[in-house]
Amino acid sequence: MHEGLRVVLILLTAAVLMVALAKAARLPSMLAYLAIGIAVGPHALGWLHESEQTRQLAEFGVVFLMFSIGLEFSLPRLVSMRWKVFGLGGAQVLATVLATMSIAHFGGIPWQGSLALGAVFAMSSTAIVGRLLAEKLDLHSASGRRTMSVLLFQDLMVVFMLILIPALTDTSRLAAALATALAQTLAVLLLVIVAGRPLIRRWFDFVVRRKSTELFMLNVLWITTALAFLTDWAGLSLTLGAFLGGMLISETMYRPQGEADIRPFRDVLLGLFFITIGAQLDLVVVWQRIEWVALVLLGLVAGKGLLMLVVTRLSGADTAVAFRTAAQLAQAGEFGFVLLTLASANGLLAPEVVQPSLAGMLLSMLAAPFVIERARHWSTKLSQDEWLRHSAALQEVAAHAFSIRDHAIICGYGRTGQSVARFLYKEKIPFIALDMDAHRVQQALTAGENVVFGNAERREVLLAAGLERARIVVVTSPDVPSALKVLGIVRSRRPDLPVIVRAADDTHLGELKRAGATEVVPEVIEGSLMLAAQMLLRLDVPLRRVLHDVEEARGRRYESLRERYRDAGPRE
User: Fold this and answer.
1) Which among 157, 152, 159 has a CA at the least distance from the CA of 79?
2) CATH number of the domain that residue 334 is part of
């Protein structure tokens, strides 16, 4: 019998059985693939021998995973999540790296290896956590948004770490190597984004007009492999090119179809990647250094979780949200395996360090579903305790709203909320503003403004703010999930109450209107109207005509203003 066919048959048989068992136990498929790798690898049954061809084929699983992540990434999304992504995510990665380097220093590991190990342990599992949050409908919860922001930053950091780790082998040329690598990265990014975006859009328009699903799928695969080849040829990583390909397609209307076409290839090849990772585990070495395995496991689940709890709490989240966020990130990640393999291949970490680390990472991922589920249960009790601790704050909200009626409730007191408040103050319309930024609230109170600390996504806070007596609610944050929660609360109590919602653009217009928004104000459209007005004025178009054109455009866009603008006088 052909040896290759025998190995493929063994792997497929094991995959079918183990994945079926994982699904029955409601566990991620990735854990089944890791178990297969441990069982059939050269350190156990020996059915799967390590080869360059197998390694390269498995690497394409990571390539397609990065492509899928790129599909979820776009510049507008990054801008809207910038504080959580770079603030919370950056703090988590930095804290984990520094803590790991401190511990590794006492273990006699050189700083280059400890830095690489810190990067490995900083990663969490996008595959496990993302799937569990989606199944529990928690992706847009307070903890879910924070978790996905941190995971997005970790995914972005992988690209940098893939450049940094090989450069650590020659510290005398580290600065030059990093500068060269970053220059190459910037050049490729500019080439792909600036030249690639219009080309990708036009090319896919052409492909779609051929009305062939086969041709569309072939083009998705071609884009992925071609950009991976381009970045690899430029001395960067395969995964960087795949990430850029996904990002380019994400900004077209073809993103959902591209994701659907790539998923089967991604899942199967990523499964092979995890099998090869599991095959690297030497159970004999693990048993000989079991205390180090336990230390890695404890560090990832308890230590990393505690660091994330502190970081999230300091960012302003309440204890229950911080606790769930920490539990959702307290494990190793699939990209940690990539970085660990890279660090080992470059001689930064000895096998005596790699094997216990690999085992502890695997065990942390096996424990992740159970840790996350228990955190959901415990966070309920924490929320009850948190409610008691915040009862004084709630009474303060009620005290500020007690003496007013027919007022406006402003949800969010950033720049937009402050601008809205100035108009209300000028018209002598009472208002109460709710904001979660303690420093901003304190500044507003010092200035004598009716602003209190409170989360508008909570029913009891809105009721304390006088929802039953209010005349209007204004949601000033462009965060769609938050707006949907506010709308759900308002509509359950006051179906007739006008609610004006701010949005970044009109992408979620229909969803917000269906949820009960009286009007949605997209910043992009308002900005374009002001830009057009300034342009017409500079072209000597009469002011009255400019104002009429802008009002007419708004009238077409906003239903509640149509009647008013319809009565506008004739243009000059």
Assistant:
1) 152
2) 1.20.1530.20
Question: Into how many domains does the chain fold?
Answer: 2
Q: 34 in helix, strand or coil?
A: helix
State the average pLDDT over residues 141-156: 79
- The answer as to whether 571 is a domain residue is no
Q: Name residue, tokens 């490729």.
A: 188
Beta-bridge mates of residue 410? 433, 474
Residue 556 belongs to some domain of the structure? yes
CB-based burial, 107-118: b 16+ in 10 Å, e otherwise = eebeebbbbbbb
Instruction: Yes or no: say if 239 and 193 are a contact pair by the CB < 8 Å rule.
Output: no
- Which residue, of 358, 382, 406, is where some domain finishes? 382
> How far is residue 432 from each of residues 54, 230, 418, 455, 476, measured CA to CA in Å?
63, 55, 11, 13, 13
Give the Cα separation of 363 and 34 in Å (integer).
10
- Whether residue 412 sits in one domain with residue 371: no
Q: Do β-strands 499-503 and 519-522 pair in parallel, antiparallel, or remain unpaired?
A: parallel
With H, G, I as helix, E, B as strand and everything else as coil, classify residue 129: helix
Last residue of a domain, one of 382, 410, 439: 382
pLDDT tens-digit series, residues 427-481:
888 999 998 776 788 788 778 788 888 888 888 888 888 898 899 999 988 788 8
**Quick one: tokens of 357?**
């680390």
Question: pTM of this prediction?
Answer: 0.57
Helix (H) or strand (E) holding 411: strand 408-411
The reported pLDDT for the residue numbered 388 is 44
Which token pair is 541? 């178009």
Encoded amino acid at 167, one letter: A
Q: What are phi and psi of 516, to 5 degrees?
A: 120, 10
User: What single string gives the DSSP state of each residue in 141-164?
Assistant: SHHHHHHHHHHHHHHHHHHHHHHH
| DSSP state letter for 88 | I
Tens digits of per-residue pLDDT, 368-407? 878 887 887 776 555 544 444 455 556 667 776 777 888 9
Q: Which domain holds residue 274?
A: 3-382
What is the C-alpha to C-alpha distance for residues 47 and 41, in angstroms, rounded to an integer? 6
Could you tell me the two tokens for 143? 């903890």
Residues 329 and 467 in one domain: no
Are 138 and 78 members of one domain? yes
Could you tell me the CA-to-CA distances from 358 to 34, 339, 355 in Å, in that order? 11, 11, 5
Q: Are residues 397 and 349 in the same domain?
A: no
